[in-house]
Amino acid sequence: MSKRDFYEVLGVSKSDDEKAIKKAYRRLAMKYHPDRNPDDEEAAEKFREATAAYEVLTDSEKRAAYDQYGHAGVDGQAGFGGGGFGGAGAGGFGDIFGDVFGDIFGGGGGRQHNPNAPQRGSDLRYRLDLNLEEAVHGTTVSIKVPTMVECDTCDGTGSADKSDPVTCTTCGGHGQVRMQQGFFSVQQTCPACHGRGTQVKNPCRTCRGEGRRQDQKTLSVKIPPGVDTGDRIRLSGEGESGVNGGPTGDLYVQVSVRQHAIFERDGKDLYCEVPVSFVDAALGGELEVPTLDGRVKLKIPAETQSGKMFRLRGKGVKPVRGGSQGDLLCRVQVETPVNLTSRQKELLQEFQDSMEDTSHKHSPKKSGWFDSVKNFFEDFKS
Ligand SMILES: [Zn+2]
Ligand SMILES: [Zn+2]
Question: How far, in Å, is the centroid of ligand 1 from the Cα of 244?
């Protein structure tokens, strides 16, 4: 266990009251909570450290002992020795958790001391694949979502008759049992009632005593224009239904945009490659280029080089979070002609011959390149 000063751990001063300490702990715990940092040992350690400090500094007796004697005054009392969560010795954890987090993590963890407390239903995630047009223009999709709903045969009680449910005989209604594991006595969720504290003698046949059943619902989801891969749409209250009258979870629709045959998207801009004949590139001309709203004309000037980028303003994507519409960037790709007839080859040869003496004037890149090569070899000689 770390020996850092508890006040320093929480970033509070010795004169701060319990409220300030709670606030400081809450901030740290939000940041380092294992639920938010899975498999992060460093975060877990920080969380343990902050929790230990919180436990001592919010207990007036322990705080007084700590103020007077430092860690020596409270060591062996904190109850976090060898720490995991919810394991041996973490008796106080559930209470702290419920106290500070009850409203944030919604009964998700640690709060097991009251099996009949309302529990929020789980959030669901749905991966939605869209093509680029749908993502850019917006759409309405029908999605089927698996969900747990309250059993309507038994109204969620799980029992077939009114005398049920009865207090669980295994745990006496506590929802928790103590198990001996080696030297340790470990508190565990009651295996007979799964922490509910009650048992159903005559289970409902529809849900087999669960009180909830698996169902599928169809939702119509409006996708706003401009969404992109990674965007989430939260449908409040469309997740799994809660337990013991707890609130329903949320449904998160996770957007994933498929690759497009022509366009590549980068935020609000779109890119595409436009092939152009070397004659058009040399003489200039008008090209037809595709946009998501149909074809448009793009004028290219004479002597356009391969790789030249043309920007069509406002032909990109209007971002879902607002802001100006992006652009379409067309990269010109000059094509070498293929399948030439002998007549065409003759013409090209004639064309080539006509440039024999002056070829450096007609190939800006090539002449520059030859200069570089010449300089390179001259450097070599010296
Ligand atoms: Zn039922
Ligand atoms: Zn039980």
Answer: 14
